[in-house]
Amino acid sequence: MIQALIGPIASLAGTWLSGHVDKQKANTEATVALKKAEAKVYERKASADIDWDIEAIKNTGTSWKDEWLTILFSVPLILAFVPGAEGIVERGFEQLDKAPDWYRYSLGIIVAASFGFRGAAKFFRK
């Protein structure tokens, strides 16, 4: 009689254990799939950033934009060392301090786009 009960109980326990293992396996597979998907997103983002920089570098070959910005940013630097012109530089920066935020942000975006977004982003974070 006990043997007659042991068979069904063992079968029931085996079925429960098998279901539990399958559930854990499915959870593990779902977690692995999620992590792989996240890794793919990060990989695509990094690739897109690099592609953007490469395209920007290719486009600078026929543009005077970088040279113009370099000259423009050099003017206050040079004038700061010219006797009598220091006041002009100081007043110019005082006026820029009064400029609206959208204008200063726009200048930052222009410089970032010209010289490389990632390099400029690192600079502006400091």
Structure, explained:
Helix content is 87%, strand content 0%. The chain is mainly α and 126 residues long. α4 (101-115) crosses α5 (117-125). The chain is rod-shaped.
Q: How are the SSEs placed, and which strands pair?
A:
Elements: H1 2-59, H2 65-79, H3 86-97, H4 101-115, H5 117-125
Helix pairs in contact: 4-5
Low-confidence stretches: none
Number of domains: 2
The count of strands amounts to 0
Class derived from helix and strand content: mainly alpha
Distance between the termini: 80 Å
Q: What proportion of the residues form beta strands (DSSP E)?
A: under 5%
Largest sheet: none
Give the number of helices: 5
Oligomer: single chain
What gyration radius follows from the Cα positions, in whole Å? 32 Å
- What is the residue-mean pLDDT, rounded to a whole number? 79
Shape: rod-shaped
Helix content: over 70%
**Topology as H/E string?**
HHHHH
What's a concise summary of this model?
This protein is an all-alpha fold. The chain has five helices and no strands. The N and C termini lie far apart (80 Å).
Features:
5 helices, 87% helix, mainly alpha, 126 residues, rod-shaped
